[in-house]
Amino acid sequence: MLTGRRFANPLAAAKAAGADALHIKTTLLHLKLVKACHKEGIKLRVYTPNRKRRLVHCMLLGCDGLITDYPDKAVACRKILKL
Fold it and tell me: Which end of the chain is less crowded, N or C, counting CB atoms within 10 A of the terminal residue's CB?
C-alpha cells in the first residue's frame, strides 16, 4: 500500500487492504511504525529521502527499502554506516 497522507494507523490500513508492504512518505516515518510493521511481517519502504540526513535516518531505523532520486547518495550512506 502506498500512502502520502496520514492515517490514524497506516499499518492497520495496510493490513485491511491485504498489503504485504507499506510505502510511506519520509516525513511519516517513525520508529514505532517500523517496529510494528516488522512485528506484523509487513515490509516498510520509504519514499523520497533525498538528503543525506534523511537517508541515514531511514537506514538507522531499519526501513526495508528506500525510494530516492539520488541512489548514489544512498549507497554512500550505506557504506559509511556499514550496513
Answer: C
Structural domain spans, the chain? 2-81
CATH of domain 2-81: 3.20.20.190
User: Rounded distance, CA 83 to CA 61, Å?
Assistant: 12
How far is residue 72's CA from residue 61's CA, in Å, rounded to a whole number?
20
Q: What is the pLDDT of residue 66?
A: 96
Letter string b/e over residues 42-56, b meaning 16 or more CB atoms within 10 A of that residue's CB? bebbbbebeeeebbb
5: CB partners within 8 A, 6+ apart = none
Q: Considering only CA atoms, which of 66, 37, 36, 38 is closest in space to residue 54?
A: 66
